[in-house]
Each structure stands twice: as C-alpha cells, then as structure tokens.
Amino acid sequence: MKVNVAHYGGFCFGVKRAIGIALKTAAAEATVCMLGDIVHNEEVIKQIGSAGIKRIKRLGAGERKTLLLSAHGTGTAIIDNARRRGYNIVDATCPMVKGIHKIAKKMEVAGHTIIIIGDRDHDEVHGIMGQLKTRPIVIDQVHTIPRRRISKIRKAAVVVQSTQNADNVFKIIDGIKHHIPDVQFFNTICRPTRTRQAEMRTMPLKNDVMIIIGSRNSANTQRLCQIAKSLNSRTYCIASREDIKPEWFAGARSVGVASGASTPDVIINEIVAYLRQLNK
Q: Is 108 a catalytic residue?
C-alpha cells in the first residue's frame, strides 16, 4: 500500500506564529492567562499548558498578569475589559483574521449591514462579531439563510470565516444576492485554507483510502473531512495514531494522508510511519 502525503499540511503561518508568540510570552512573563485555546488542537493545548500558560474561564484582577489573545481573534469589549482590570495584552491573532476585522469595521462605518458566513459558535466568528457596534447576521448553510430578514436590507457587506468551505460560501452568496440589491462580497477565506481545499478536491479520487488528521473541534480540519468524504466514502478523520483501525485498509493499494492547519508535524509523521509499517 502506497502512502501519499498531501503537499500542504501541518501548521499554517497563523498557527505557527501564534504558538511562537505564546511560548515567547510564557518564557518572559510570570503569569500568562488565556480565555479559551490558542488554536484548536489538543496536543498544542497541552504544550501551551506545559509552558505555564493558564486557561481561565473569566477575567479577574489583572495586576502583574498577561492576557494572551488566541489566533482566532478576540472581541474589543473583552480586550477593553482586560485592560481596565490591569492585564497586559499580548495579541496572537492571525494577521489574516485581523484583516477580516478591518474590513468588517470599515464596511459597518460605511453603512452596510454586516453578514458573516461562518459557524456561529466558532471563536473566530465571535471575534469578528466582537469588532462591531451592531449585531451582524451569521449564516452557515444555504438552508439557514434568513430570507425574510435579509429581504429588508438594502446594502450589505459579506465577510467569511477564514476556514470555510469555498463551495458552501459561493452557494450562500448566490442565495443572499437574490434578496439584497447591493451586496459587497469579500472572500476572506485564507490562502492556506484555499490551497488545502483545492488539493482535497483531487486527492481522494487518486487514493483508495483517505486519512485526515486533526482535532474534532478544528474547523479547517472538518472542512477537509467534508470535502474528502463527498468524493471518497473510505475517508477517516482522526486525531491520533490510536484512532486508526487496520481493517480500514483492506484491499487498499494507496492511502492519502492530509492534515488540518493546527495539526503538529510530530503527529503527522507518527501516523505516516505507522501506515508505512502496515505494509511490512
């Protein structure tokens, strides 16, 4: 069985940068706290915890403490509250996500209703919402478009959670344009997401089995799983080597291996080595 590893895999720029900032901050500051997780991967979260960064559920007294902002972005109200409480702020937000914030704020000031295409419970979407003075509309699927509500909107600006499935996004945009006369669309899906999704539209067709590696709460990983499964029913989404079942590969001549943007190389390499060992 041949093991074919995706050309685009492992940490993207934003994740690598955020982890670097986190570890540097932990080494320099006595008390570093986080609301939520730096990125959505269990192994990375363990690494951050081992470096001494504490995960907190709410802000307390912030004197002599540093609040680290995650790669997904954080609402301005939370940041302002932290500063009032005395926290030093270290921002590890992905620059591409920062770009989405800038667009959304600019278009809101220009009088557009902001529509976010994304997962309403995802940290990145919460971060975008938290930049705005008015409550935006969040849409995740074509069938959840609030047609009656958006038909009252005269002009809208649409931004996209950076890890969304491009095919899904364009279906939603087409639906929105049927109801709003003036729609300005900003395709803010990040480049790493686009390149991985493009590869995932051909790789499952070239392999008997597909293995997608990443956390179950990683949005970009789950998008890859969705695309791969739509093309190859023998697609398995796993977080670690322990999730693999040898019977998945019965009769397979090739297996494709891909990973999300927050999956560490050490996990990818361990799984690839294990799959190659299955041949022996």
A: no
